[in-house]
């Protein structure tokens, strides 16, 4: 009989919530808008995090990826990323 009692209590609580929300429509509207905004923000953040951090890269062998770093002493900069042409020749492209 625990299930019947639980359903009965849930029904009474639901009716009470509906009556309380109908008594204060402005508060109800603010609550609904706040929840909608929170769900939308959560969805947007998860979508951005998934797209940037969690989604696997569309390559067949991710272990073959590499990042090349080098020192740029001509411009008094420390460690910089190297471009593809620089990594192939060892020299920066003309005009760079």
Description:
This protein has 96 residues and is mostly helical. It has a domain at 2-54. Helices cover 60% and strands 9% of the residues. It is built from 3 helices and 2 strands; from the N terminus they run ααββα. The protein has helices at 2-23, 25-54, 84-89, and strands spanning 69-72, 77-81. Strands 1-2 form a two-stranded antiparallel sheet. A hairpin with a 4-residue loop joins β1 (69-72) and β2 (77-81). The protein starts with a helix and ends in a 7-residue tail after the last helix. The mean pLDDT is 82.
Please describe the structure with a list of short key phrases separated by commas or semicolons.
about 100 residues, mainly alpha, two-stranded antiparallel ribbon
Strands across the major sheet, in which order? 1-2
> Any idea what the shape is?
elongated
| Chain-averaged pLDDT | 82
The secondary-structure element order is HHEEH
What's the total count of β strands? Answer: 2
Percentage beta strand = 5-15%
Query: Structural class of the secondary elements?
Result: mainly alpha
How far do the termini sit from each other?
80 Å
C-alpha Rg (nearest Å): 29 Å
Low-confidence stretches: none
Helix content, binned percent? 55-70%
Number of helices: 3
| Largest sheet composition | 2 strands, antiparallel
Task: List the SSEs and their pairings.
Blueprint: H1 2-23, H2 25-54, E1 69-72, E2 77-81, H3 84-89
Antiparallel strand pairs: 1-2
Short description:
By secondary structure, this protein is mainly alpha-helical.
């Amino acid at each position: 009989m625990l299930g019947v009692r639980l359903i009965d209590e849930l029904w009474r609580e639901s009716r009470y919530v509906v009556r309380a929300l109908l008594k204060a429509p402005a508060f109800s509207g603010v609550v609904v808008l706040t929840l909608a905004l929170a769900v939308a923000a959560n969805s947007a953040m998860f979508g951005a995090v998934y797209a940037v951090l969690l989604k696997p890269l569309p390559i067949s062998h991710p272990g073959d990826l590499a990042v090349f770093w080098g020192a740029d002493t001509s411009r008094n900069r420390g460690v910089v990323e190297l471009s593809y042409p620089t990594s192939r020749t060892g020299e920066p492209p003309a005009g760079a």
